[in-house]
Every structure is written in C-alpha cells, then in structure tokens.
Amino acid sequence: MDLSQILLFRNEAAPQNRTLRFALWGIALVTLSQIFTFGFHFSTIQYYGILALLNLLILTLTDIHSIKGNLDMWVFWLLMWLSILVNFMDIPREFQSIPRTVSFCLLIIAVGPFFQSPSLLVIKRYLLNILNLGLLFFTLLSFIGYVLHFLPKDNQGYYLGCIDHSMTLGAIAGFTALNCLHEIIKTKPKTPRQRFFICCFVAAVLVTLLAASRTSIGSLGCAAVSYLALSFRGQYVNAVKLVLVFVIVGFIALQFTGNVTAGVESKMEYSASHNSAFYTRKHAWADRWNEIKHHPFFGVGAHSRRYELNAVDNFSSKGQIEAGNAWLFVWSSMGIFAFLLLCVMFFRPMSHLWFNSPPGSDGSLIFGQLCFLAVYMNAESSITAAGSFIFFYTWLIVAIAGQKNETANSTGLELLPMKSAPDTPQTQPEIKA
User: Fold this and answer.
1) Are 147 and 188 in contact (CB under 8 A)?
2) Cβ-contact 284, 325 below 8 angstroms
3) Residue 398 belongs to a domain
4) What is the pLDDT of residues 11-51, one digit of tens each?
C-alpha cells in the first residue's frame, strides 16, 4: 500500500518548494521524536530553537504579500503579556512567564493561527498529514507492542506503549481513532483500504483503553458521536449500522486482547474510594476557581499559579504546572478576556463547520477533532505549554479550522476543495450492510 494514501487529506498537494517541504518534515520529526520512547530527545533549548528557526524559515519562504495576521490570536498573545505586566511583581520566578510567552509565539508563528493565507493553509494541511501518519505509526506500534509484550508500563502499571507518558499515548491514540473513523467513512465500502482502516480504528480504541486515560476515552466518545452526527446528518440509520459493526468487531477483539480496561478500572476504583469520579482533578479545579475569584480580569499571570491561593501543594521547583483544566487555567492565569477569546477561537469554527461542512468532508473531521480537544481540555492544560506535543497539535488544528476564505467567507477547509478520488464518495456517506 502506498503510504501517501494513508494521509488524511489524500489529494492535498505538497508545497512545491523543496526547502519548505524539508522544514515541514523537520518540524514533524522533531515534535514526534520528543514523545517517542526510542526517538532522539532534544533539550528544551534545542527543541525550542529548532522549531522557532524552522517556523521563521517557513515564513521567509511564503508569499509575504498574501499573509494576513489573525487578530484573535495576536490579541490572545497580547493578553498574556498584559497579565504578566499587571502581576509582574507577584509572579514566582520559577514559572519563567516571559520566556514561556515568547516561546508560545515562536514555536507556532508560521504553522499556528498567528498568520493566515492560502499558501499557509496548504503548509498547515501538509504538516497535519505528516503528523497524522506519525500518530498512526505510534498507535499501531503500541498495539503490536502490547500483543507481543515488548513495550513497557509506567511505575503505576499504566501502559506506555512507545510513548513517554500514558496520558500522551491516550491522546494520540484517540486522535488516530478519530482519523481512522474518517477514512473508513470516506473510503469505498468493502475494499482492502476500508478493511485496513477498520483494523486500525479498533487497534487505536484498544490502545486508548490501555493507556487508561479517562479523559482521552471520554473525549474520543464525544468526538466520535459529534463526527458521526455531522457526517450522517439525515441518515442516522447508517450511523447506527456503523456503530453496531464497531461494537461487534470491538467485542470480538476484546476476547483476544486480555484485560485492556484494567487501568481504567483501577482509576475508577480509586476515585470511588474517595467518593468522587473527578477526585484526581477536583482539587486543581478548586484552586483555579479560587484564583479566578481573586483575579478575574487579568489573572495571576500567564503560565503561572499563585502559591497563597492554592490548597494543593504540588508546585515544582522547575516551574512545571499541573493546572487540571486548560479552560480554567487560561482564565485564572490570563483573565476573563483571554478565556472568552479562547472560546471564540474554538467554538466559532465549530459552529461554522457544523452548518457548512458537507457530510463526510474533511471539515467533518476537523469538527470532530475540535470536539475532542474541547472535552480533553477540561482535564488537561497543555494548551499553553509550548514544549508539549498536544500544544503543537492543538494549535495546528485551531489554525486550520479558523482559516478564512476572503472571497467565500468560509473556513480554509473549503478554500482548497478536495479533488474527487476513485474511492472517495462525494455525496452523503453510506455504509452498506
């Protein structure tokens, strides 16, 4: 099978400039290597420096006259600086708010939402293709590693696969499952390609369960339902058929894969012993609300927390932050205006995609991925952590979803329409029994 056909946007043209393609592959390999157990791990300075230089290189190779700034994203970044200015004397030094705010911009200045243009949209979609292929590889390798018992678990007994953290494994397996679901629907029924992606989908769901990330499992469930609702709008009988097929295949797969839900069951038992399904997060949420209560308008300072307002003493001398909720963390650290702007950058494209994306289109997939992230961010807070792969992937999705078409006033997913492929239905998806 031609690996290029596994890419989600199968007819997406690659950038013509060879140096530009090199830069995009460089970004993908560097970001993927950081989470790959067997990859080359750069130091923080090296990682930031390489990504910043490659982003700036991309900007220099792009038609500067067609680029326009995204006001929402620039204001969001300026609100980071404002929160730092207002709280400058009170922000603990270890949080390094100023370097983190600079790196937030530089690491995604070309491939994030800061700038928009038709040429940048092609670049971002091509980069997403590469990343999704990498995530598919990681997910399948992790599944094979579990079956053949050659990949490890962490100290708590949660499966790591080939990724450095079980929570990250759950997220990338969830993204992969959603991507494979999209390919199943787009592909002509009863073909080897569709069967391949059905197997990949089942493997990705099982890896999500193995990672024992309840956040990823819940996010995947919500995203899949939202995606199917959009893809099968008006044809919900076909959606039910598809779900039944997956339930049957999944049930059969569970008979041969052991107790893949052991980690989830362990976490549920631990939460039940403390009389709260959200025990591991509720204290962090309470701390965020307390910071919001005392600093609602400008927050306590971007990328930081306030010692005296936190009941849970889980501060790190290196400034690492376990905020527990990205939505609340943006509000508590940057203020209500940044929080509202973040909501706009997420939910405005989601609304547009819901009302304007043709069933089975790539816009449906981006809608599903935004739903995944919107739920995921209720328990994870890496959206402002520039060193995190989830940070990078999130802002790439937001950048693609928010791309504007100046002539049609639509999202960038409709700016460059997909060409018809022999195995890609152009009408409403249909699942044959």
Assistant:
1) no
2) yes
3) yes
4) 556 788 899 999 999 999 999 999 999 988 999 999 999 99
User: What are the Cα distances from residue 70, in Å, to 104, 134, 329, 340, 341?
Assistant: 15, 28, 23, 16, 12
| Alpha helices by DSSP H, 192-235 | 192-210, 214-231
Among 83-87, 104-108, 188-192, the minimum mean pLDDT is found in 188-192
Phi, psi of 311 (to 5 degrees): -80, -30
Rounded to whole angstroms, the Cα distance separating 410 from 351 reads 11
Alpha-carbon span 367 to 374, nearest angstrom = 10
Cβ–Cβ under 8 Å, residues 76 and 56:
no
Does residue 93 have a pLDDT over 80?
yes
Number of domain units in the chain: 1
Using only the alpha carbons of the chain, give its radius of gyration: 21
Scan for tokens 């992790």, then name that residue.
142
Query: Is residue 305 in a domain?
Result: no
Within a domain: 288: no
Cβ burial of 164 (10 Å; 0-12, 13-18, 19+) is middle
Q: How many CB atoms lie within 10 A of CB 341?
A: 19
- Domain membership of residue 264 (yes or no) is yes
Rounded-to-integer distance, Cα 91 and Cα 344, Å: 27
116: left (phi over 0), alpha (psi -120 to 50) or beta: beta
H/E run at residue 69: strand 68-69
Q: Which is nearest to 299 in space by CA: 272, 330, 342, 276?
A: 330
Give every CB contact of residue 364 below 8 A, 6+ residues apart in sequence: 182, 227, 230, 231, 353, 357, 358
pTM score of the predicted model: 0.89
Q: pLDDT tens digit string along 382-421?
A: 899 999 999 999 999 999 998 854 323 333 343 333 333 3
- Note down the domain range covering 220: 3-276+310-415
